[in-house]
Amino acid sequence: MNTKTAMITIAGRPNVGKSTLTNRLVGEKIAIVSNKPQTTRNRICGILTKEQTQFVFVDTPGFHKAKTKLGDYMVNTVRESIADVDATVLVVEPIASVGTQEQLLLEQLASKKCPVLLAINKIDTVEKEALLEVMAVYSSAYQFDAIIPISAKTGDGLKVLLQECEKYAQEGPMLFPEDITTDQPERQVMAEIIREKLLWCLEREIPHGTAVEITKFSERDNGIIDLDATIYCEKNSHKGIIIGKNGEMLKKISTMARTDCEKFMGTKVFLTTWVKVKESWRDSDFLIRNFGYRE
After folding, report:
1. Strand runs (DSSP E) across the chain, as ranges?
2. Which of 38, 100, 173, 258 is most buried (CB neighbours < 10 A)?
């Protein structure tokens, strides 16, 4: 039997649910999620193999106005990710107006002449009648190949979205083994899990100024994994908040992260964390590359 592959980019403004959608489509958590904007920093591939068709979903950072060199990297990642793919899914909220970020993304997509599917997410938060106006507004703004109302949270509409994506599958060998769900190295997944817990537990700007580096990843003969991680922040005051009184906040973050690391790896994990200060690292080309945010 002939095999097919569909390379699909998932794009949109911050916090529209791109990573939640990627995880739901793949059926496993491979991208971190939080209620804070700019959670995703790198391009992440989620892989779903269904019978003879392999879907490669490219989760991207939220398209936003960059304020740092890290922000520039994230925006460039989005631009690069909508080139040379079979189709792009533009994820939007159920609001009857086309925002600035959406308009800029549509201009980028038009220049690439890439097929675009519109996924109106979070339909579980509005009345069905309200969706008609949203669909009408976007239909007049761009010629989408299809418009699909979905809820990444509940799974509503995802079967239809997957059917639409399959129309762009190209015949040829599969790009990845059938039994894997992401192209991310295990070290990167572990680092992202820790960063997710920072986003969950810390407020304001502090988690956005953090980066995580895995300094040790080793497996014992009995399968137990020893994991050492360094959390970098931009200010000494932030370091104190991350550690917390008597180390309680860091202990909370580490415990939550270890649980998810064990779930992903399927074995026991011993996690040790440190916190260090690297002032203004988000504007340092060297440190941005060092933390894995450069191709």
Report:
1. 4-11, 44-50, 53-59, 87-92, 116-120, 146-149, 170-171, 211-219, 225-233, 269-277
2. 258
The 3 state secondary structure assigned to 121-188 is: CCHHHCCHHHHHHHHHHHHHHCCCCEEEECCCCCCCCHHHHHHHHHCCCEECCCCCCCCCCECCCHHH
φ and ψ at residue 16, rounded to 5 degrees: -90, -5
Q: Which residues contact 211 (CB under 8 A, 6 or more apart)?
A: 195, 231, 232, 278, 281, 287, 291
Question: What are the pLDDT digits (tens) for 43-95?
Answer: 889 999 999 999 999 998 877 777 788 878 777 888 787 777 999 999 999 99
Query: What distances in angstroms separate CA 17 from CA 33, 53, 60, 251, one per listed residue?
Result: 8, 25, 11, 29
Task: Output the six-digit token pair for 218.
Answer: 């080793």
pTM attached to this predicted model:
0.86
Is there a contact between 13 and 101 (Cβ–Cβ < 8 Å)?
yes
